[in-house]
Design goal:
Elements: E1 14-17, H1 27-54, H2 61-90, E2 94-96, H3 97-130, H4 135-138, H5 141-166, E3 176-177, H6 184-189, H7 196-229, H8 234-242, H9 245-263, H10 271-296, H11 298-317
Parallel strand pairs: 1-3
Antiparallel strand pairs: 1-2
Helix pairs in contact: 1-2, 1-10, 1-11, 2-3, 2-10, 3-5, 3-7, 5-7, 9-10
Length: 318
Amino acid sequence: MEKGEWDNHTSPVEFILLGMGNVPSLQTPLFLLSLIIYLVTMAANILIVLLVVADRHLHTPMYFFLGNLSSLETCYSSTILSRLLASFLTGDSTISVHGCMAQFYFFGYFLVSECYLLAMMSYDRYLAICQPLLYASLMTWKVSLQLAAASWLVGFFTSTVVTSFVSRLKFCGLKVIDHFFCDFTPLLEVACSDTNAARLVTFTLAVFNLVFPFLSNLASYVCIIAAILRIPSSVGRQKAFSTCSSHLIVVTVFYGTLIIVYLMPRTPQLRQLNKVFSFFYTVLTPLVNPLIYSLRNREVREALKKQTALKTFVQNVF
């Protein structure tokens, strides 16, 4: 970056994030709510990772992907909530240009990686239910590692390209971002240089990295549901569906809110509603996901009970 690129005459040194609205009386309640959500999210996702590592019964591709998802969502939550908590606590809603670009980069990185990781998990469930005899040979540990690594690498590449284009834009005049974090559309709204290249590149990559994983999830679950409906016994159908119901709920919630946020027009009347849905998929989804998996998944519940019982036994002995 050349000296003077962020000069005050061409670009602001810092932005102002409007957040959820400038209501001083709500700052303390929102801080407490966000802090509770952040602590529970971190604890729940870290617990899932520890259970997957510690319990040998969870050393399967399905739970390997789940551990990756929980790891990703601890980073995802920290990218958004840490800055939001600091804003609520100090009352300072400013963020430096470099800080904004860093937040935008990591948000895009984890978002795209999660899209692909959810698609990999759907593919894993498709093989387990639709190709059970070939599952062990098709979904080996080597394949699982390659799929997980590909999810992280595609997120890294996509976010690097998009952020490089956005960081070249000039921001002048009003430097107020009408959002609670640095997202693509709100950033473009305060840019005063030509945004066509950034929009074109981002749209092209979004088609590949958001739509393709979504269609992959959709195709996997169409095949899965068709296969489950062909099972003659109701007990068999229930058992088969229970292995993928948690993931289906997570995918539905994630993509449902994501589609609403990015297809909803950012008119003045709908901006607050847009923020609410953004809050849901960036903040609440990482909180809900581990709860869904732990409450609806028998193996995770049993692993948690086993680790709790072991800890109690060790404490009683020593």
